[in-house]
């Protein structure tokens, strides 16, 4: 049964209720808006799992210029400098805005914000809330604000399955709800705020439902996606059988924790930056050490000891669940897929290449992160760019649209088949032969109509992008192309181009760049 929600027609529709989606809805107020979430409000988002904080130059020894420089270094030549500068300059104001929405940031006894240090930051500039539960606190406060905002209609338990396109523009959303299918027609546009792709990997810190569905929605609608090959692997996920994997925040290393192996040797000591090098470098170091047959541990006994539980209560709690006491035991860790630098290609207003479609947060590729995200820039990006997206939508003229000829709703996506392929070919270290085999295996799934189709389509685009990039840069490391190319190019790709490339026998190169 299809339910046509006529009383909500014409309103902007936001898909996803993590920090990006919640902030966009609040920034649009008092404009009426519809917010879709597949689960309970705030319950299915990666945002709630974020242990790190928000990066902002608030210290007396810091400045937006230093934050800008650190971001560019981490991005390894692929950052959009205009976007980076705009976001780092807006970051301090974003912290103030969140505080006004009720976020309880950690403060010292004199009332000043407590600033932490994370890898590749040259200053203490990480703002936390509830210690190591920043994401949970942000989602709590913003969800409460959304509940109190009468202009926001929240549809919980409603999962977007496809975007409706008429005359090359977004006309609506076809979604699945508990009581039936839902058609939302909109002349004000759709905002994707659906998170990342970690669910396409066996080892991931993301919720299992975050397997790139927003990217699939955009790709099926004809949008260009950008920099899909760049997946950040967090080097210190708790090495147990639990999935998704628990994250041991980078802030623990910021407090002085060391990476050791089963012999107690600090095996990254000679690497520039050591434990506080960029995430891609640390992840590769840990991965290689594991591949040599070692185990890897994060040792916080000397730097934190009995103070660990006070400083990182959430991490201490789930370590205790696994039978580990961080005050006395080294914590077993391994890399896991954590954050996607790629996403829907958007301009400075968050607009995609399809009229009426915006993207915000991890699902978007703004150019802030380049080839490797600087720690804690992502939550800051989500808050800042949500405002930009909202202003863009407010300035957009309503178009009369009718979503004609609605087909049957697509099957609920199942990433299991794609996950096996992606986990083998698109890990910390990659090579051309494995990527070619992966593309060949993904192509029939992506072009089919089974529940595997959407996850496979995203995985295919990621794999083709990885094949095209015949170099190692940032989080993309090719063992058959171990060095940088002479010129740094961003990659852009449509689903049609990925399908054509995967079915071709000609070499794959970075044919499109921005």
From TrEMBL:
Q: Which cofactors? A: FAD
Gene Ontology biological process terms, A to Z: 'de novo' NAD+ biosynthetic process from L-aspartate
Q: InterPro entries of this UniProt entry?
A: FAD-dep_OxRdtase_2_FAD-bd (IPR003953), FAD/NAD-bd_sf (IPR036188), Fum_R/Succ_DH_flav-like_C_sf (IPR037099), Fum_Rdtase/Succ_DH_flav-like_C (IPR015939), NadB (IPR005288), Succ_DH/fumarate_Rdtase_cat_sf (IPR027477)
Q: Which GO terms describe its cellular component?
A: cytoplasm
Molecular function in Gene Ontology: L-aspartate oxidase activity
Catalyzed reactions per annotation: L-aspartate + O2 = iminosuccinate + H2O2
Q: Which Gene3D superfamilies match?
A: FAD/NAD(P)-binding domain, Fumarate reductase/succinate dehydrogenase flavoprotein-like, C-terminal domain, Succinate dehydrogenase/fumarate reductase flavoprotein, catalytic domain
* Residue stretches making up the Fumarate reductase/succinate dehydrogenase flavoprotein-like C-terminal domain: 457-485
Q: What is its main location?
A: cytoplasm
Its pathway is: Cofactor biosynthesis; NAD(+) biosynthesis; iminoaspartate from L-aspartate (oxidase route): step 1/1
Q: Which domain of life is it from?
A: Bacteria
Give the PANTHER family listed for this entry.
Answer: L-ASPARTATE OXIDASE (PTHR42716), L-ASPARTATE OXIDASE, CHLOROPLASTIC (PTHR42716:SF2)
The entry's family comment says: Belongs to the FAD-dependent oxidoreductase 2 family. NadB subfamily.
Q: State what protein this is by name.
A: L-aspartate oxidase
């Amino acid at each position: 049964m299809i339910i046509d929600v006529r009383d909500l027609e014409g309103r902007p529709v936001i898909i996803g209720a993590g920090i990006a989606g919640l902030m966009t809805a609040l920034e649009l107020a008092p404009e009426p808006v519809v917010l879709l979430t597949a689960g309970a409000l705030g319950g299915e988002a990666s945002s709630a799992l974020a242990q790190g904080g928000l990066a902002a130059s608030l210290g007396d020894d810091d400045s937006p210029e230093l934050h800008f420089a650190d971001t560019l270094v981490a991005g390894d030549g692929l950052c959009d400098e205009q976007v980076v500068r705009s976001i780092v300059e807006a970051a301090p104001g974003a912290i103030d805005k969140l505080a006004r929405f009720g976020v309880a940031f950690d403060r010292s006894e004199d009332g000043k914000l407590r600033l932490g240090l994370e890898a590749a930051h040259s200053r203490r500039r990480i703002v936390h809330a509830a210690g190591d539960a920043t994401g949970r606190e942000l989602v709590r406060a913003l969800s409460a604000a959304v509940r109190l905002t009468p202009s926001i209609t929240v549809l919980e338990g409603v999962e977007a399955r496809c975007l409706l396109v008429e005359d090359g523009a977004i006309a609506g959303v076809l979604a699945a709800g508990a009581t039936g299918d839902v058609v939302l027609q909109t002349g004000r546009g759709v905002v994707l705020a659906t998170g990342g792709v970690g669910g396409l990997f066996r080892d991931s810190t993301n919720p299992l439902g975050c397997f790139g569905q927003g990217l699939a929605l955009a790709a099926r609608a004809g949008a260009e996606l950008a920099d899909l090959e760049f997946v950040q692997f967090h080097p210190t996920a708790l090495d147990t059988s639990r999935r998704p994997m628990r994250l041991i925040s980078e802030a623990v290393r910021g407090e002085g924790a060391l990476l050791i192996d089963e012999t107690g040797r600090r095996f990254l000591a000679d690497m520039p930056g050591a434990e506080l090098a960029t995430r891609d470098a640390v992840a590769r170091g840990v991965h290689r050490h594991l591949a040599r047959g070692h185990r890897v541990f994060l040792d916080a006994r000397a730097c934190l000891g009995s103070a660990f539980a006070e400083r990182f209560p959430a991490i201490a709690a789930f370590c205790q669940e696994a039978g580990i006491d961080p005050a006395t035991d080294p914590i077993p860790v391994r890399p896991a897929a954590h954050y996607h630098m790629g996403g829907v290609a958007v301009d400075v207003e968050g607009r995609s290449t399809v009229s009426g479609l915006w993207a915000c947060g991890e699902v978007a590729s703004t150019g802030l992160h380049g080839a490797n995200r600087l720690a804690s820039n992502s939550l800051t990006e989500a808050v800042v760019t949500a405002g930009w997206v909202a202003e863009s939508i407010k300035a957009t003229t309503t178009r009369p649209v009718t979503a004609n000829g609605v087909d049957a709703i697509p099957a609920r996506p199942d990433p299991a088949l794609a996950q096996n392929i992606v986990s083998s070919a698109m890990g910390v270290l990659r090579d051309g032969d494995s990527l070619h085999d992966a593309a060949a295996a993904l192509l029939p799934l992506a072009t089919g109509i089974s529940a595997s189709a959407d996850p496979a389509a995203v995985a295919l685009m990621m794999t083709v992008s990885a094949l095209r990039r015949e170099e190692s840069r940032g989080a993309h490391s090719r063992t058959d192309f171990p060095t940088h190319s002479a010129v740094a190019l961003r990659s852009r790709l449509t689903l049609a181009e990925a399908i054509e490339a995967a079915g071709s026998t000609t070499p794959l190169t970075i044919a499109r760049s921005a």
